[in-house]
Amino acid sequence: MSLFSGLSAFPLTPLLDDAVDERAFAGIIERLADAGVDSITALGSTGSYAYLTVEERAQVAALAVEHAGDVPVFVGVGALRTSHVLANVERAEQAGARGLLLAPMTYQPLTHDDVFELFRSVAERTELPVIVYDNPGTTRFAFTVELYARIAELPGVSAIKIPGAPRDPVDARRHVDTIRAAVPERVTVGISGDAFAAAGLNAGCDSWYSVIGGTLPEPAVAITRAALGGRPHEATAESQRLAPLWALFAEFGGSVRVVAAIAEHLGLAREGCLPLPLRGLAREQRARVVETVTALGLV
Amino acid sequence: MSLFSGLSAFPLTPLLDDAVDERAFAGIIERLADAGVDSITALGSTGSYAYLTVEERAQVAALAVEHAGDVPVFVGVGALRTSHVLANVERAEQAGARGLLLAPMTYQPLTHDDVFELFRSVAERTELPVIVYDNPGTTRFAFTVELYARIAELPGVSAIKIPGAPRDPVDARRHVDTIRAAVPERVTVGISGDAFAAAGLNAGCDSWYSVIGGTLPEPAVAITRAALGGRPHEATAESQRLAPLWALFAEFGGSVRVVAAIAEHLGLAREGCLPLPLRGLAREQRARVVETVTALGLV
C-alpha cells in the first residue's frame, strides 16, 4: 500500500491562551495512532495551519511525529508567501515529516502560473513527497484538471487531494478517472469533504483526507476499510448513517467549528481551542452537535 | 476637513530579494507627499500587508511616517489571527500612525460575530481611529450594512472603506445614503475600487482609498479635487478618460499587478517587486500597460 493510501486523519491544533496546547495535541495524536489510521496530516486546514507562525508550526510538526509512533505524519506547509512556505518545508523536514501538504493560500487571487511556480519552488527544495491540496472553500483558488496535470509532472508530487466528488456514482467514477488519466501513475488521488468520502473512495480514490478522522477516527477507519476492502455498500451505509453530522458541517459553516466542539466535549481540547477571530459554536449549536454525535453513538 | 476625507493613496510595498526595498518605498512615499495627497495608507492590499511579517510591517510603518512629511499615515493592521492583528496595532502606534486600516482576512470563513469581536478587540486596545476595510475581492468576507452599523458603534471606529458603488448615480447616492443613515455621523464613508471612485465621490463619499493614487497620484488628486470641489462632471470626465486603465485592472485580475508594472516601468521599484507567489505581469501584458499609461499621458 502506498504511503498516500487509506485514511489520513487531520487533527485539530488546539490552542490554550493563544499558544499551542501541547498536551492536548499530543493526546489527540496518540488517540489517532491507537485507532489505526494510515497516516496523520498535521497542520491541515483543520489543524489551523494558516493561523500559526513558522515557529509554532515547527513545534506542532515535531510533536506530531513524536507522538504518532509508527504512523507516518504529513505536514501542511502552505502560507501566503513562497519564502514562508519554504521555511515551513525546512522545519517539517527537520521534524521528521514523511510528506508535505501544500495548499495555494490566496489573498490576491493567484494565476495558474503563480501556483505552478509555487509547487515547483517547493518540489525543487525538498526530497519529501508533496500532496497537492485543493481546498477552494478556504483557499479560494480553483484548480483545473489541466493544472493538476502540469503540477503532477513535477518530480516529488505524489498525491492530489480533491475537494469532494459528484454525488452520482457514475459521475464520480468519471471524475476520478479523468484526473487519473491526466496525471502520472505514481500520483494518488484522495478525496476530502467528509460527506463525499464514501462516494469518492467507492469511485476509485486511493485515500480519504479526513476531518472527522482527526477527532473521531473509528467511523472514518470503518468507512475507509469497507470502501477499500471491496465492500462499497457498507461504506455508503455508514456514511449515510452519519448524514446528520455532515448536515451540521454544512449548517454551521464548515467542519472545523463542529469538530472543535466535539473535541472540547470529549475533553480532548479546552473550550475556545480555535485561533481567534474564529469563535467556537454558540451554546445552542454546541448542544446540537453533542446531541447528534451522542445519538449516532460516536461519543 | 476630517482626517478621513479626500484622497488616501495606497502605495505598493516593493520587495527586492524577498525583503522590503526600503529605498524604493521611501521614494514612493515622498512622491505621494509631494503630489499633495490628503493621506497615505501604508500596508493596504496594494501594499501587500497580508504577505509581510509583523517585523516587516513595523519597518514599513516607520518608513512611511518618516518620509510622509506632514501627510498623515494610516497603517493596515489586518492578519488572519487576532493576536497578530493586535501585535500590528502596537507596532503601528509605535511608528506614529494616525489611523489603522483593518480588514477581516479569512482562511476559514468568518461569521459576523467573529468579525465584530475582532473589531472590538482592536478598538479596545488602541486610541487610534480605525477604518473598517471592506474588500471582499481579497478577504472573501461580505459585510452587510447591518454589520457596518454594529461595528461603527464601537468607539474609535471612524471610517468605512466600501468596495465600489452602483454605476447609476441615483443608485450610488442611495447606497451611500443607506450606509450613512446606519452609522454615527462621526463615521466617514470612503470609496475604493478606482473605477468607481468618481461615481462614489459624486454620490457623497467623503474619501477615495486609491490604488492608482499610490503610484500615479496626480490624476487621483485631480479627480478627488473636482468631485469634492463641486465639479462632478469634471471628475466623471477624468475617470472616463482613464477607462482604458481601469479595463486593464479588470482584465489582468486586479489592480496590484498593473500598478506594480507601472512602478517598475517608472523606476519606482525593481522588477519583480511583488511578494512571490505573485508573479508580475507577463511581457506582453506589461507592454500593454506601458502603452496605455503612455497614451493617457500618465507617465
UniProtKB/TrEMBL annotation, chains A, B:
InterPro entries: Aldolase_TIM, DapA-like. Pfam families: DHDPS. Coiled coil: none annotated. Gene3D superfamilies: Aldolase class I (3.20.20.70). Keywords: Lyase. PANTHER family: 4-HYDROXY-2-OXOGLUTARATE ALDOLASE, MITOCHONDRIAL, DIHYDRODIPICOLINATE SYNTHASE. SMART domains: DHDPS (SM01130). It comes from Leucobacter muris. It comes from the Bacteria. Signal peptide: none annotated. The keyword Disulfide bond does not apply. This is Dihydrodipicolinate synthase family protein. SUPFAM superfamilies: Aldolase (SSF51569). Belongs to the DapA family.
